[in-house]
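Holo model, copper (II) ion. Inputs:
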Amino acid sequence: MKFKLIKPIFNFLNNFSMRKWIIAPVLASLVMLGVSACKQNESAPATMSSAEAEKIVAEGNYEEAEVTAPPLVPAPIGDRKAKKVIIRLETIEKVGELEDGTQYTFWTFNGTVPGSFIRVRVGDEVELHLKNNENSTVSHNIDLHAVNGPGGGAEGTLVAPGKEAVVNFKVTNPGLYVYHCATAPVPEHIANGMYGLILVEPAGGLPKVDKEFYIMQGDFYTSGKKGDKGLLSFNLDKSIAENPDYVVFNGNATSLLGKNVLQAKTGETVRIYFGVGGPNLTSSFHVIGEIFDKVYIEAGTKVNEHVQTTMVPAGGAVIVEFKATVPGDYVIVDHSLSRAFNKGAIGKIKVTGDENPTVYKSKK
Ligand SMILES: [Cu+2]
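Output:
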């Protein structure tokens, strides 16, 4: 294409008295244009458009997908082809603890807050079964932010206690997405713990890392105050005022403390899939003593580097990565710090391994 254009331009310039002065820069520009076009093709992102993803054929029969309770995530997608997967979620209302001695009636997907982590890839065809446990007191449904369709699937999945609904969707956009119950009153269903994450990996999968964890932040509005013993219930007025008693990771003030502290070794790259269920508060997500080497901005495909604190909206998510270089305890917080130190949004990653005085040393 480039050479076809050059010849007529050359002929034209050949008849021009100043051709020596004009031909060289024009040719140079054309060559540069060609080089730049090639470079753009070479550096085209590995991800594809959602329209292209829609055309991927998922082969084979439907297979059950592995889903996991927090803080675990299913095995990476790797380089597998798009396939047909069945995902089963059950909405379960159950009494659990916000912290030791403080009970709360959680509404959950698969019995945990957040609900099970779902891991698929672009082009997968998903058959989602949403069952509402027979002991539930109300109807529930699911809105997956990874779904293109009315209500993100909510309209097709509204189920009464004891019933099951099935929706099918094709996964067309890579990223990390929140799912949540969208049954009225929606803020109450979410405030009771009805949210989770679905990861959509690009074709070929995300880059390999050593450790992966699943964390979601939620704000809880109770009939009592933080630390009260006994069974607390949802308080509508506090929810409307956006004044929670608890702001916690993974549904409990100690879910990532004590025996539940996350573990990593020096030299390992740690990736955290972090989402905010809300229903109301955003998170200033931060790990004290670490710098995020990579942040997938708003959990999409663009990567920022060297980030201290990343803002995650309610109903949003982020993927962060850092390399554990120095042994010690690293505290995970919402850097709106009263939430961390007074309402429960605090956890820990323990890094073990050899000291690394080049990067850090202390004389104490
Ligand atoms: Cu619900």
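The two ends are 69 Å apart (CA to CA). The mean pLDDT is 90.
Archived with the compound record.
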